[in-house]
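Hi team,

Below is the intake form for IclR family transcriptional regulator from Aquitalea palustris. Please confirm the fields before the structure is written into the shared record.

FORM ID: S-0412
PROTEIN: IclR family transcriptional regulator
ORGANISM: Aquitalea palustris
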Amino acid sequence: MQEEDDKDRLFVTALARGLQVLAAFRPGESALSNLEIAKRTGLPKSTVSRLTYTLTKLGHLSQDEHSGFYRLGVALLALGSVVLASYDIRQVAGPLMREFALENNVSISLAMRDGTDMVYLETCRSQSRVSVQLTVGSRVPIATTAIGRAFYAGLPDSTRRQLDGELAARYGERWPALQQRLQQASAEYQRCGYSASFGEYEPDVMAVGVHLPSPNPGQPPMSLNASGPAFAFTTEVMQQQVAPALIALRQRIVPVA
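The structure came back. Fields below:
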């Protein structure tokens, strides 16, 4: 990939490196040092130091005056809100998702693809004290999650083949087994109308998912999932109660012929 980027005359390497620095931060972390950022990005520490300085000046990072460590800045929050606002399906789906979460005592999420992951655009939880703790902006893999498998199953063949190449590059020797499971999941989706991941991504999480076609011209397809803790939701409950309810919800959000 780097060699391809180097040959692309339109590719701005300095910009790409700055974005690499921002992408090094993960949910739940308070702050990172230049050294840790360098380890995660593979960039020289001197380059990272210049990038973090510049990003801090622009408000995309903030620096702790005591430790010298960096955290994501408020400017990114403003950009994130603009991104979310551009997907108007959230305005339709949000109230229906909240209703669904309360009625079925589950967590429910709406996500779109970013590379080989799905990124959550909206998530609602039930009032249960124990629920799946993922939030807006959380990333989960396409290959092993219900929400990812549902997205994959609904893609046109040409798009799926392109995605297969990206997944193969990510997983290497693990890809043949994962590809076989994805193909099985896609066949199950065509037969049942939903995908499932029962303890495969997280051992204690049961989840089902459905594909959402593009809601409006120019917007990408997405997917929905409903999930709950394994001690409270059996396979039978997920298949016979939650999955049919999720399919019905999908029809209310984006009717599918």
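SUMMARY LINE: The chain has two domains: 13-73, 87-253.

Thanks, M.
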